[in-house]
Amino acid sequence: MSCLFCKIIAGEIPSTKVYEDDQLVAFKDITPQAPLHVLIVPRKHIATLNDLEPGDDALVGAMTRRAAIIAKAHGFDSSGFRTVFNCNKDAGQAVFHIHLHVLAGRTLSWPPG
Length: 113
Ligand code: 5GP
Ligand code: ZN
What we know:
- The chain is 25% helix and 22% strand.
- The chain is α+β, with helices and mostly antiparallel strands.
- The longest helix has 17 residues, at 57-73.
């Protein structure tokens, strides 16, 4: 298994987990870009958004809903938060196991760089 996030999910590489269930794991980003920066990943290895199948719709829905729950748990539901999926080179995807970034705790600029 060569995937970094599969290794984190398996516990072979340490991480600061904030949530896990039978489908998802959420852990703190090692290089946080905001006071709260969590990555939500499916246990199932899916390389990019381009590889999603119809059967993954509920999984992606669960990731999105979990982002809102995690933001709220940290007190950022009203002040706001951002969720981001990067896909492939131009978006800066560096780890090819889909992950939803959850960023909060500062004003985030738009448009993104
Ligand atoms: P991407 O650019 O693929 O959307 O985001 C990958 C994210 O994974 C980056 O924000 C990066 O800081 C984070 N990351 C890379 N390696 C590790 C690691 O070993 N542990 C954790 N917790 N995050 C990592
Ligand atoms: Zn993986």
